Amino acid sequence: MSARSVVRALPAQRAVEGDGFVVRRPFPVPGVDLVDPFLLLDHMGPVDHGPGEAVGTPVHPHRGFETVTYLLDGELRHRDSLGNEGVLGPGDTQWMTAGRGVLHEEGPTPRFLAEGGRLHGVQLWVNLPAAQKMIPPAYQDLTADAVAVDQPTDGVTVRVVAGEAFGLVGPGSTHTPMTYSHLTLAPGAAVSGPSDPDHTVLVYPLVGPVAVGGRILSEAELGVLGPGDSVELSGAGDDGGGPSEVLVLSGRPLREPVARYGPFVMNTRQELIEAIEDVQSGRFGD
User: Fold this and answer.
1) Taking the C-alpha atoms of 112, 117, 118 and 120 in order, what is their torsion angle to the nearest 10 degrees?
2) Cα(230)–Cα(174) distance, integer angstroms
3) What share of the chain is helix, strand, coil (3-state, %, to 5)?
4) CA distance 178 to 212
5) Most exposed among 6, 13, 78, 200, judged by the fewest C-beta atoms under 10 Å?
6) Hey, what's the torsion of the CAs at 201, 9, 217, 126, to 10 degrees?
7) φ, ψ (nearest 5 deg) of residue 203
8) Positive or negative CA dihedral for 26, 31, 35, 40?
9) Which residue, 58, 73, 64, 66, is CA-closest to 95?
């Protein structure tokens, strides 16, 4: 097999979302609108909130793509205009297919807001193919105990949320062919796995540095990998330090026109206008 190497590194930039929570964002940023089929990656924390400090996002619309929220620490509550509601805890994933449109809000649970604590998570936006942008909205609440987990070698833990990766198959159902994995790597511990040569592959260290094909990616530095049919990773932290946590994403590029405006991602400007009109006329619900 031919191992993929890093062809572009994108350090995350600071951004402020919702009611004022800070995220680290490797894309979209000036010069990088998307990494097909992925539209956005926001890294929340890790941050330690005191009582009353945690914030969220007020009600906002989505159309034409999917949001994937994966939590490592803390609690998040979500609800939408279709009546869906739930709480995410450590290791849980909320996979929302916005499709033709939904109003959505998310934020700390009352307990987490009152007591405070550590919040750490990541949100990914995945584009939908043109033929599926107007499908009915849907949710997948994937609990931590449903995620496929393995320890293939000493010092390595692999969790697969969706797709087939590192010998595991995750529980998530996807519209765009893709994989979503979270790996924990002790310093010097290594792991490899096959990679679909037709997929875009991203490696994002959530905590600590990670080595990919001889290149070390720092925490919050996204690595876009080049051609190949395998991915090789190792923990690059100090022997006296803790393990590294890394997100590994892959997805088949859609290679379709992208028209985006805030929370809407369609294929044409006219479709964006229609989305705004539908929100204003109440077609997304309450």
Assistant:
1) 0
2) 21
3) 10, 55, 35
4) 20
5) 13
6) -40
7) -125, 125
8) positive
9) 66
Beta bridge partners of 100: none
Specify whether the CB–CB gap between 168 and 201 falls below 8 A: no
User: How far is 98 from 93, CA to CA, in rounded Å?
Assistant: 15
Reported pTM = 0.95
CA distances from 198 to 38, 163, 251 (A): 15, 14, 8
Within a 10 A sphere around the Cβ of 9, how many other Cβ atoms? 16
Q: Which residues contact 272 (CB under 8 A, 6 or more apart)?
A: 259, 260, 261, 264, 266
CATH for 6-280 is 2.60.120.10
CA–CA distance, 203 with 99 (Å, rounded to integer):
27
Residue closest to 42 by CA, chosen among 51, 29, 55: 29
Q: Which residues pair with 74 in a beta bridge?
A: none
Spatial distance between the Cα atoms of 163 and 147, rounded to a whole number of angstroms: 11
Residues 167 and 193: beta-carbon distance below 8 Å: yes
Strands 93-97 and 65-73, sheet pairing: antiparallel
Whether 41 and 88 have beta carbons less than 8 Å apart is answered as no
